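Q: Got a minute? One more chain.
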Amino acid sequence: MEYYFFTEKMSVGYQKHSLIENIEIRLEKGQILTLIGPNGAGKTTVLKSIARQIALTGGVVYLDQHNAANLSGAEFSQKMAVVLTERMHTEMMTCEDVTATGRYPYTGHFGILTEDDRRVVREAMELVHVTDIKDQDFTRVSDGQRQRVMLARAICQEPEIIVLDEPTSFLDVKYKLEFLSVLQQMRKERGLTVIMSLHELELAERVSDKILCINGKYVDRFGSPEEIFEDGYISKLFRISSGSYNEKNGNMELEAVKGNAEVFVIAGGGTGRNVYRRLQRQGIAFDAGILFRNDLDYPVAKALASCCVEAESFEPITDTLLETAKKRVDICRKVICCKESFGTLESANRELLEYAKKENKEIEIILPKRFG
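A: Always. Here it is, folded:
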């Protein structure tokens, strides 16, 4: 297979001292690669080395079958655009002025924009929704607006590949999604290849074709999201020792309350998650069940409950499992029920609630809020 972007034994570092060695990346044209790893692991160093802002300490970066080190500045700028975290010197420049600097690889020594250049600038600003601030001082707009202006600037270069360092850091949820949607749109329509770092693992999993995991001294893994987000791997990569991260659904939970359970929560179908988290915030240890392993409540209960009485998905709840749940109810002073009614497969939980009433447990009914 012929790759559009690839590296051979790339090593990166500073002053000829390698920090991360033998980085092997293979990307087809139009693919999105995301770098993930702990803070200080070297993601920015890798990006700067790819962007020729730091000299490689070893190996080669190939861009469209060419050794990137041999391309002239203008050739490299027409192929690759870079948006890193360093501040530009933009005194007395409007957002449109900053965006227009992306055309400099095409304007020659005098930097005079043609009408075609101005059209490209307009289209880039429209694409990332910053046209309404085009006349504002770049230094006076919000961090999120600056981030989008810098993306517009990169788009103006009409590059074949774009390098982004934490591009969603200062964006709210709306603009995070819009930003990544723009990248996907450009990848689809223009064959744009994207290399970026992200802190938001759930976004990395959804938007990436390939993920590069950096562990501080070496590349730990390189592969598709399905290959990377395996049970337990993210916790290992980020050395999570307090709380938990669930690779299957992207759930990140704080540490479960230690001690004997005071409350038993009967829930299911997503009705119990907020209750579990509220109890955790209040420092109250609790048990949960009976939950099928494919239930929406199950991942949160598994992470936060002292004991989660769990049943095999799509299988009947056995008498033995029901007796186990009753014993957990016995040691709790209170039962919280998040269900208004019980379905056919939830008859065991209905029986469990009746058992709690019979045993004179304090019962609290907490139903999910309905809106509209």
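A: Residues 66 and 339 are 62 Å apart (CA to CA).
Q: Perfect, thanks.
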